[in-house]
Amino acid sequence: MKAKVTPPTITRAMSAFVEGLCEDVAGQVELFIYDPPTLDDLFFRFAAAYTFRERIVVHGQAGWGGYYVAAPPHHGFPQEIKVSELGAAIVQALTAHNPAVPNDAVPSTAMKPVLRALGARSQKELQAEGKHCWIENNAHGIAITPTHNGGHRGDQRGFTPLEDRVICLSLAVSDALLGQALQDAFERCTS
């Protein structure tokens, strides 16, 4: 990897050119230009998961107007699911992540499939009793962030990330370990 360009380095290269010590400034400066990472290394994918009563749902996320909303796929399972199946559902949800959908393409009912798969009658009921985890996949690995459930009313309502309880995994994690990590993250959730 080449050294990063800094003003003194460019100034020295230009001085060397002016003083006749080198034939071209561009050739000298090129030696110091940093090669940026490929765009393949700069990705983020998001998914989410909820548990409510005896059900778990893993779903994709879609970027919409600076927010993320629930998006397909919506995988609903009983609590007793095999961890490898749960992990495979997480991988599918992350793969389906859509970073930018048009503002008019997101219905106000984006959470309905999630609520239906959980057996919750409303968002209010889910926030009263449920647990939620945020799942992020980037170039460094997979992070599962548990949340605090502040209920459905008051200043602390909704789900708040618990950054000190994040579970970090490598990109090479097996489906079984990924599924187990989500179950462990649900145990780290608070209310």
Brief sketch in words of this structure:
The chain is an alpha+beta fold and 191 residues long.
Question: Rg to the nearest angstrom?
Answer: 23 Å
CATH topology of the largest domain: NMB0488-like fold
Output mean pLDDT: 79
Estimate percent helicity.
25-40%
Tally of separate helices: 6
User: Number of domains in the coordinates?
Assistant: 2
Low-pLDDT segments? 1-14, 28-34
Amino- and carboxy-terminal Cα gap: 48 Å
Report strand %. Answer: 25-35%
CATH class of the largest domain: Alpha Beta
User: Which outline best applies?
Assistant: globular
Q: Count the E strands.
A: 7
Walk me through what this model shows:
- The chain is built from 6 helices and 7 strands, in the order ααβββαααββββα.
- Strands 1, 2, 3, 4, 5, 6 and 7 form a 7-stranded antiparallel sheet that branches.
- The protein is globular.
- The N terminus is likely disordered.
